[in-house]
Structure formats: structure tokens, C-alpha cells
């Protein structure tokens, strides 16, 4: 990432959120949330049900506009627009899978490439002259990503025909096609079994180092074992507020975190 300018909270670059607040009518979904996702780090966001994790993710993606606060990327003011995230060097995977069913696996990954590369791809779809070489290059790049994620064998298949865990990997490949400097993962372990979650963990751990991009990774996730094993640091939300931040060991030992989770368990048990 490029050197920071001006904003001291963004001294190490990456994504910086300051004092983010979101209201839905009278309901305070987030209040005063500040956190950083630095290059080369995997940063978790956890919290009991309704804590505000998805809302925070949606703020960073531009799906929800915060009522207070500001964001920077590499120290520069950042106002996310969902359709421009890739161009801003940001890629995301959403809850579920979200692949295009009418495109093959490799075409799905090609569609995740940046605007520049995609121009060639869509020109290719329209059979415009001079686009063949660029489309070949993009296809090779997509195949490399599929191979890296161990799913190259499915390149010509259509997503609906494939197991859920495979589709999840394809969704990650598509996100990586944008060559992101910031990767946002929303509950990537959802719907996966134990072995697939272990493999996903290794994959997430490797994201910052791959391709020399020094990518920053923000992971919103329910699955505690995964979060604890892959994150360099963790932010804990409860009722829309940040109640703890630290290494996995620090967060695990924090009484406020235990109380937030135990309180939730007790309420669930009572219900
Ligand atoms: N579009 C919306 N309109 C009104 N209230 C909303 C909306 N989206 C979220 N909320 C409320 O905001 C609060 C935070 O919700 P959010 O989905 O961000 O929590 P979460 O931590 O992701 O929860 P979960 O773990 O259950 O997915 C909840 O009380 C939720 O009911």
C-alpha cells in the first residue's frame, strides 16, 4: 500500500474506521466504533448475535451509510461505493456464495478481475477485435487462481452443480482476481464442515503473504475456533459497541468478552 498521508490513525496504512455509528430508526446498531485493519494482518470482528458485525461489514462495503464517523484507506478519506470496490483495491466475499449461475467457474473468476482487465473480457464476449489476447491472459490468470485454491478441475462446470465448499473456494478465487489490497470476508465458514473449515483457515492465513500484495484481511465470523486460529488481532462488538481489542489470547482472557458471550448463552438457554 502507498505511504499514508495526514491521518495519524492510519500511520501504518490499510483500512481505518473512526467513530462509526449506525442507526436504524430508533435502534443503535453501531456506536463509536474505531478500528484498523493494517496491511499484512488478519483482523477479526466477532460478537454475539445482533452485536453489529454485519452492519459494520456493510458500512465498509458501502451498503450501509454510517450516521457518524469516517473511514480512510491508506490515510485517504474513503467513501465506499459497492460497484467501485474492486477499483478501490478492495474485494469481498459475502455470506453464502453469490456466484453467477449462468457463467462457468472460470468465467466467474474472470468477472472478478479489475475494470481494466474486464474491459478485455467483455469486449471478448461481444467478439470485438483485438480482445483475444487479453481474454486469453485473463483466462490464464483465472485458471492460476483456481489452481491455487485447488479447484481448477471445476473450471468448465457451472456453480450450481458443485458442492458448497467448492463454490466457497471459487468465490474466494473471484475475490482474489481483483488483486485486492484489502480483503473483506463475511462469515466465510458458514455452512462448512470441520475439515473444510480447517482448510479455509490455512487459506485465510496465507492471504496477506500471497502475490507480494501484503493484503489486509478483515474477517467477520461466528466460528470462534477459526477466528482464534487465523487472526493476528480481534475486535469484539457487543450491542454495537467495541468492548475489546487484542490478540486472540488477550481477547479470550478478557472478562468483558466472557460476559458478553456468557450473557448471550444464558439468555438463549432461558429462551
Ligand atoms: N436493515 C436493518 N433495519 C433495522 N435494523 C437492523 C437492520 N440491519 C440490522 N439491524 C439490527 O441492527 C442490530 C445489529 O445487527 P447485525 O446484523 O449487524 O448484527 P450481527 O452481529 O451481524 O448479528 P448476527 O451475528 O446475528 O448476524 C440488530 O439489532 C439488528 O436487528
TrEMBL record:
The keyword ATP-binding applies. One of its GO terms (cellular component) is plasma membrane. It comes from the Bacteria. One of its GO terms (molecular function) is ATP hydrolysis activity. Residues 15-264 form the ABC transporter domain. Keywords: ATP-binding, Nucleotide-binding, Transport. InterPro entries: AAA+_ATPase (IPR003593), ABC_AA/LPS_Transport (IPR051120), ABC_transporter-like_ATP-bd (IPR003439), BCA_ABC_TP_C (IPR032823), P-loop_NTPase (IPR027417). Coiled coil: none annotated. CDD domains: ABC_Mj1267_LivG_branched. Gene3D superfamilies: P-loop containing nucleotide triphosphate hydrolases (3.40.50.300). This is ABC transporter ATP-binding protein. It comes from Virgisporangium aliadipatigenens. The lineage of its organism: Bacteria, Bacillati, Actinomycetota, Actinomycetes, Micromonosporales. The gene is livG.
Amino acid at each position: 500500500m502507498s505511504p499514508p498521508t495526514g491521518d495519524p490513525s492510519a500511520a501504518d496504512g490499510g483500512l481505518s474506521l473512526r467513530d462509526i455509528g449506525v442507526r436504524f430508526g430508533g435502534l443503535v446498531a453501531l456506536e463509536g466504533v474505531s478500528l484498523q485493519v493494517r496491511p499484512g494482518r488478519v483482523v477479526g470482528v466477532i460478537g454475539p448475535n445482533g452485536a453489529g458485525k454485519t452492519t459494520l461489514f456493510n458500512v465498509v462495503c458501502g451498503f450501509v451509510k454510517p450516521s457518524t464517523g469516517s473511514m480512510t484507506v491508506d490515510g485517504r478519506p474513503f467513501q465506499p461505493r459497492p460497484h467501485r470496490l474492486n477499483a478501490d483495491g478492495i474485494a469481498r466475499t459475502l455470506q453464502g456464495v453469490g456466484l453467477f449461475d449462468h457463467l462457468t467457474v472460470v468465467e466467474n473468476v474472470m468477472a472478478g478481475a479489475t475494470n481494466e482487465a474486464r474491459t478485455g473480457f467483455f469486449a471478448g464476449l461481444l467478439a470485438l477485435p483485438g480482445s483475444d489476447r487479453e481474454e486469453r491472459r485473463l483466462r490464464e490468470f483465472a485458471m492460476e487462481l483456481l489452481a491455487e485454491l485447488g479447484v481448477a478441475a471445476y473450471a468448465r462446470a457451472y456453480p450450481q452443480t458443485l458442492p458448497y465448499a467448492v463454490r466457497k473456494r471459487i468465490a474466494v478465487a473471484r475475490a482474489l482476481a481483483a488483486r485486492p489490497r484489502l480483503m473483506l470476508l463475511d462469515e466465510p465458514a458458514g455452512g462448512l464442515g470441520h475439515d473444510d473449515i480447517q482448510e479455509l483457515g490455512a487459506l485465510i492465513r496465507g492471504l496477506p503473504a500471497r502475490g507480494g500484495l501484503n493484503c489486509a484481511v478483515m474477517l467477520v465470523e461466528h466460528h470462534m475456533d477459526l477466528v482464534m486460529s487465523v487472526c493476528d488481532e480481534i475486535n469484539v462488538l457487543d450491542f454495537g459497541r467495541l468492548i475489546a481489542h487484542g490478540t486472540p489470547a488477550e481477547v479470550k482472557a478478557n472478562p468483558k468478552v466472557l460476559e458478553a458471550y456468557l450473557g448471550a448463552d444464558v439468555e438463549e438457554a432461558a429462551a
